[in-house]
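Milestone 3.1: sequence recovery, worked example.
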């Protein structure tokens, strides 16, 4: 029998190719990541270099000069430099929070779904408690009481996201643990740990990856929101949400202070969602089957 084309994700990907939206989303995220990593090289000035003699200079093409392509802020700081360093701050915090939340949530979801019993009940009770109160109010109270810091901000973001992974992974494990290959592994004498991490865990990676892209977008917005409220990244360290907050009084006098960080936030969120949609379509076997032309 001829091998199924759809059985190979790599082959399926080469046939249907990545959609334009997926490529665009990936390009946006990679561009933002590189901008943050290369900020010390690309930035024309330090993120907190002040020059009151050059305050509120407009961008190049709107009366400004090449010395400050995106203009300057009320303290004379270069907006482009702060945007680049802000990308490093905002993207790294969101990505770090997703990594921690996915690791913790996936592990608890695996254990909850496979072990069951009181362990499952205890973990799901913690999930229900987490979901029972408004997250944003909790985040504001948490940051206000324990003072804003990078560590506390990551903790708040992780608390927002880990429950998503627990519920997703648990449902997947409950389905997979009843399949024949799992029962065969148990019959052959495989330990519970080996069955869980060797046979079940690899089969729940795909949905976790897809969810991670959407969670990245959500946590990125939460970080920007907390920084906007003054409860996230603290000055002078730049973040795009903090830059928006600092520019509120200059909305009509210095539009570039609002437009550039706002557009950057929107672009990153859009890129993550586009990438997530594309990965979801590709990793879904039914979608791959349709893409390969099978009935």
């Amino acid at each position: 029998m001829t091998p199924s084309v759809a059985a190979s994700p790599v082959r399926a990907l080469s046939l249907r190719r990545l959609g334009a939206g997926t490529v665009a989303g990936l390009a946006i995220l990679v561009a933002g990541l590189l901008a943050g990593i290369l900020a010390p090289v690309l930035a024309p000035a330090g993120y907190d270099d002040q020059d009151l003699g050059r305050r509120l200079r407009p961008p190049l093409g709107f009366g400004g000069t090449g010395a400050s392509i995106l203009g300057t802020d009320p303290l004379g700081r270069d907006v482009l430099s702060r945007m680049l360093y802000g990308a490093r701050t905002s993207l790294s915090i969101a990505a770090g929070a997703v990594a921690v939340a996915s690791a913790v949530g996936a592990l608890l979801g695996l254990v909850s779904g496979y072990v069951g019993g009181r362990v499952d009940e205890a973990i799901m009770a913690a999930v229900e408690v987490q979901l029972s109160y408004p997250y944003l109010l909790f985040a504001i109270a948490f940051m206000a009481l324990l003072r804003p810091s990078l560590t506390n901000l990551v903790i708040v973001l992780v608390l927002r996201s880990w429950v998503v992974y627990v519920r997703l992974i648990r449902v997947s494990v409950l389905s997979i643990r009843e399949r024949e290959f799992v029962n065969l592994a148990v019959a052959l004498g495989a330990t519970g740990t080996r069955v869980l991490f060797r046979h079940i865990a690899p089969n729940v990676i795909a949905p976790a990856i897809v969810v991670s892209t959407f969670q990245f977008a959500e946590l990125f917005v939460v970080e920007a929101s907390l920084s906007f409220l003054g409860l996230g990244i603290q000055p002078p360290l730049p973040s795009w949400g903090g830059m928006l907050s600092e520019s509120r009084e200059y909305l009509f006098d210095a539009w570039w202070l609002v437009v550039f960080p706002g557009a950057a936030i929107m672009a990153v969120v859009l890129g993550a969602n586009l990438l997530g949609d594309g990965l979801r379509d590709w990793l879904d076997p039914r979608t791959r089957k349709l893409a390969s032309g099978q009935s």
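Residues 249 and 257 are 10 Å apart (CA to CA). The radius of gyration is 23 Å.
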